[in-house]
Design goal:
Distance between the termini: 39 Å
Number of helices: 15
Structural class: alpha+beta
Domain 4Fe-4S ferredoxin-type: 292-321, 323-350
Protein name: 4Fe-4S ferredoxin-type domain-containing protein
Order of helices and strands: HHHEHHEEHHHEEHEHEHEHEEHEHEEHE
Number of strands: 14
Largest sheet: 9 strands, mixed
Shape: globular
Pfam family, one: Fer4_10
């Protein structure tokens, strides 16, 4: 197939995603390693990201049995996801964007073949082009970023929340989130696995089998062998282990809509997390929703700097033997409070607030 053909395939996938993605040679090479030519040609029918089988049949001259075989293969490879509509019961097939989407499903199984190593490198090169594109067009593209919805919601470590007379509602309580869903799957953390493949392992030595999928996303992951089913009790145990390693709970809502259900819970470290990585390398903004802020008790704080080292946002410093939190960057994850040996930090509830940080400006030589 021609360069023009692969450019069209890349554009189709880019349009299915949330963030702007430059069509680079690395991206086209990546797709050529992810897809056969027949699969790539099939994807070009997705003029809109989601379609039913009947809609697909209207767009392509192919027998239904062949279409279903193609869809099953693409779902197994994490290029398309399929789930039944709750309102109609009809199966809906959705083409994934590059990130979030195809990137995650490529590494969810935690396999370590030569192909995985090559894909990891090609994703890294494609992501670097996103960073370069953002930096080159910074003043123009930031307005596009401001119109995008938050990618996630940050959940605090439960026992460190200061609630006063107000109850912590399920929307902000990680354990109650788990209790709401019957279908729960756990898979490899795709970010830490990707970093392992790049020979840049997690600096915390954090476990990798702690990426959760819920409800329809869990059903899909279990059916396609991206993850395994776990009980609520096991899920909570894994979440507790994540807290002990200093990982941040992040919740992802269906279609990034905070009024809809949850499809995933990640447990993130600042050295590997894709969202934090894109922010720090100047590729994408960090946009999350949190209902808490870290507060320091000046009378108790000893200035030990444990919180400085654990903070994923690098938003705490020690000034004259006292920890100082720069609130505009605080995502209310609660790790500083959880790991403070003096119990000098607590989380104060603020109500839902947007934390929006533009991509870092990267200095060039």
């Amino acid at each position: 197939m021609t360069e023009k053909f692969w450019y069209k395939v890349a554009r189709t996938i880019a349009k299915s995603g949330v963030f702007p993605v430059p069509i680079s040679e690395h991206l086209k090479e990546l797709l050529q390693n992810l897809l056969t030519e027949d699969q790539a040609k099939f994807l070009l029918i997705f003029k809109k990201p989601s379609m039913t089988l009947e809609q697909i049949k209207q767009r392509i001259d192919m027998e239904e049995e062949t279409i279903i075989t193609m869809l099953n293969t693409l779902m197994h490879n994490g290029i398309i996801i399929g789930a039944k509509s709750k309102s109609t019961g009809v199966m809906v097939y959705r083409l994934m964007g590059l990130y979030p989407g195809i990137f995650e499903y490529t590494f969810l199984r935690g396999t370590t073949t030569e192909r995985d190593n090559k894909l990891a490198e090609l994703f890294e090169k494609s992501f670097q082009k996103i960073s370069e594109g953002t930096q080159k067009n910074y003043d123009n593209i930031i307005n596009v970023f401001k119109d995008l919805p938050p990618t996630d919601r940050t959940l605090p470590v439960e026992k460190e929340v200061e609630v006063g007379t107000e109850m912590v509602v399920p929307f902000e309580d990680i354990k109650k989130y788990i209790e709401e869903y019957e279908d729960i799957a756990v898979a490899h953390c795709y970010c830490r696995h990707w970093k392992d493949l790049l020979n840049d392992p997690c600096k915390l030595g954090a476990p990798k089998k702690n990426c959760f999928l819920l409800d329809k996303s869990a059903q899909f992951a279990i059916e396609q062998n991206f993850g395994r089913r776990v009980s609520k009790e096991e899920a909570i145990k894994i979440l507790k282990e994540a807290e002990d390693y200093g990982l941040v709970h992040k919740v992802f809502h269906v279609h990034s809509d905070l009024d809809r259900g949850i499809e995933a819970i990640c447990n993130c470290c600042k050295c590997c997390c894709g969202i934090l990585n894109f922010y720090s390398r100047g590729a994408l903004p960090l946009h999350t929703v949190s209902s808490y802020l870290a507060k320091v008790d000046e009378e108790i704080c000893s200035g030990c700097a444990i919180c400085v080292n654990i903070c994923p946002m690098e938003t705490i410093n020690v000034d004259d033997t006292l920890a100082v939190v720069h609130e505009e960057k605080c995502i209310g994850c609660g790790l500083c409070a959880y790991h403070c040996t003096e119990q000098a930090i607590h989380l104060k509830r603020t109500g839902p607030r947007d934390v929006f940080l533009l991509p870092k400006r990267i200095k060039t030589e």
